Amino acid sequence: MTRTITSVLPGQRVIDDGDMLLWRALPTSGRDHLGPFVFIDHYRHQSRRGIGDRPHPHAGIEVLSYLLEGSVEHRDSMGRTDRLGPGDAQHIRAGRGTIHAEQPQGGRHGLQLWTALPPAQKLVEPAYASFRAAAIPEIARDGAQVRVLAGRVDGVEGPMKLASPTTWAVLRLAPGASITLTVDATAELGLYVLDGFLERGAQPPVGSGSLALLTSGDASVRIAATAQQPLDVALLGGAPVEGPILFSGPFVMDTPERLAQARRDYASGKMGTLDGVPF
To answer: If 0-12 CB within 10 Å is exposed, 13-18 middle and 19+ buried, where does residue 262 land?
Structure first.
């Protein structure tokens, strides 16, 4: 059997200021996760003002980034600097807490995702890794390109090693093209549309900025573009989150006590400093 779409969650347009356009597909009212994913942000940034993200903390999560277009410079309180370009990806295991900042180099288009660390790993030491486009394995079929970032898709293993079983791939389909992929039958899965329209049989197609949730229990998924334009879409999911999901801004923990500890650790400088942060 092949998975089908059960429902569609429209992303919320949380920033639209003429320079940055940002949709948020998770969390939304009524749904706080998809597999281990607890946060899905999709942005287009023209960088007309040359302003990047100010130094800010994270704790209790893994922060995953993927650039479709543009480039960005990364700095963090672990002492690392990096630059990502088109097709590159990034993995920050925030754990007990780290601070980072990003400065775009011209316009950019991409994804930032958070996965919740399991309760036993909420306070692990922070870690950083990046993956160049050439090192991300691809599946190529007629009219379809699949880049596998994490988990196993159609027998291809992604390079990101995350704390929970996670599936993450980015697909580009030509107009009218389709592809059927084998996936983990036990995973919760969804499709986030980045550009174009996702075919949905007799029902209206799913447009960009929306998250289509898939049925569970089957080991394949068919993804198809409408005939009018190409489709860029992310396949996301994995094993459900372990434990409660408690948000406090950039911190995601499983208990109120751990949230309070993260706030204290940030304020006291235990997460490190970056350009004078914490303030």
So the answer is: buried
pTM for this one?
Answer: 0.95
C-alpha span between 264 and 266 (Å, rounded)? 5
Contact by Cβ (8 Å): 64, 113: yes
35 by Cβ neighbours in 10 Å (0-12 / 13-18 / 19+) ranks as: buried
Residue 81, judged by CB atoms within 10 A of its CB (0-12, 13-18, 19+), counts as exposed
Identify which of 43, 49, 42 has the alpha carbon closest to the alpha carbon of residue 106.
49
The pLDDT score that the predictor gives to residue 54 is 82
Q: Return the H-helix or E-strand segment holding 5.
A: strand 5-10
DSSP string, 69-121: ES-EEEEETTS-EEEE-TT-EEEEE-TT-EEEEEEESS-EEEEEEEEEPPGGG
Tell me how far apart the alpha carbons of residues 33 and 242 are, in angstroms, rounded to a whole number. 11
Backbone dihedral angles phi then psi of residue 256, each to the nearest 5 degrees:
-60, -35
How far, in Å, CA of 3 to CA of 182, rounded? 10
**Tokens 């394995």 -> residue:** 137
Integer Cα distance of 231 and 226 in angstroms: 8
Give CA–CA dist 212/190, Å, rounded. Answer: 5
Q: What is the pLDDT of residues 98-107, one digit of tens each?
A: 999 988 887 8
Structure tokens at 89: 């990806």
CA dihedral sign, ordered 76, 81, 87, 89? negative
Question: Which tokens in the block code for residue 91?
Answer: 């993995």
